[in-house]
Amino acid sequence: MRMRRSQRVGVVVMASAAMILAACGDDADPATEGSDTGSEAMSETGSEMMSETGSEMMSETGSETAVGGEDVAAIQEAGTIRVGTKYDQPLFGVNSPSGVVGFDAEIARLVAESLGVEVEFSEAVSANREPFLETDQVDMVAATYTINDERDEVVDFAGPYYVAGQDIMVAAGNPEGIEGIDSLNSADITTCTAEGSTSLDNLNEMAPDADVITFDTYSKCADAMGQGRAAAVTTDNVILIGLISEAPDDFELVDNPFTEEPYGLGVPEGSDLRCYVNGVLQEAYDSGAWATAYEETVGTAGAKTPEPPEINNDGC
Q1: What pTM was estimated for this model as a whole?
Q2: Domains of the chain
Q3: Number of neighbouring beta carbons within 10 Å of residue 298
Q4: Per-residue exposure over 157-173, b if at least 16 CB sit within 10 Å of its own CB, e if not
Q5: Quick one: 56 exposed, middle or buried, by C-beta within 10 A (0-12, 13-18, 19+)?
Q6: Which of 58, 167, 277, 285 is deepest in the core (most CB within 10 A)?
Q7: How does pLDDT run along the chain (316 residues), one tens digit per residue?
Q8: Number of neighbours of residue 314 by Cβ within 10 angstroms
Q9: Are 198 and 150 spatial neighbours (Cβ–Cβ below 8 Å)?
């Protein structure tokens, strides 16, 4: 377990700690990741735009207190930020031979670059994201993680950094004639989604009579549809676009979203990392690094680059 700075060195005057950390940030070299973190992809997605150190950036965004926080300091001293992300989510997080690639992975690398540390990825699925944070298995979760009130009771969120909408994937040609969420409200239509997801909660609420099967990952739902065990898969539209990009002759999107899903970067409840990451996101918006990361991941499937959402800085 990674212990906080105060647990190791006792009480430190906060003003002095902030000065020391700012000085360290100014002198730090950019992070160089190991071969399993896809550092080459980092340079290709515009991360070099994040040339400011963490301390400089946070002073510009008005969150200097986050720089002097014990959680940020512990990560910098460890030299790594442990990030949970999905390994089978095309366009957002895929564990490839060259490392973890996708939009979520690139956002995590922007955070690591600012901190001057390496990224240590581990696989997160929808159902284990809160447990990972609550049990100190990761410092941050970047995994198509929708912000909602229930989750916000046990973890904190930086961002949002993207807003998706729940939609439906069907077999090519839409043989069942599925038009939207109302079409799924039938025992005659088997719909697949992921365990522990807001997509499942929305499906149960909006189509209570649906015949539902669940797996731990959406790729298994796609497999079930390909095998004829499901007529529909429902989750966020950008996730479905990623699955369709892997098998364009087999699947298509209904393209009738029925929710809004703001994605956040999960951190442990009360962690000062939240405000720090908000500063990183704002700098990425302003510099164009966010748009570049999107265009070179999600944008490769034809998705138009949106305007980044407004960051929630309450409490920062």
Answers
A1: 0.75
A2: 2-61 (no CATH), 79-163+263-301 (3.40.190.10), 166-253 (3.40.190.10)
A3: 25
A4: bbbbbbbbebbbbbbee
A5: middle
A6: 277
A7: 565 433 433 333 333 333 333 434 444 343 333 334 444 444 444 444 443 444 444 434 333 333 548 999 999 999 999 999 999 999 999 999 999 999 999 999 999 999 999 999 999 999 999 999 999 999 999 999 999 999 999 999 999 999 999 999 999 999 999 999 999 999 999 999 999 999 999 999 999 999 999 999 999 999 999 999 999 999 999 999 999 999 999 999 999 999 999 999 999 999 999 999 999 999 999 999 999 999 999 999 988 899 999 999 999 9
A8: 7
A9: no
**Length of the chain, please?**
316
Quote the tokens at residue 11. 């009480």
Minimal CA–CA distance to 193: which of 211, 176, 178?
211
Longest Cα separation, the chain: 67
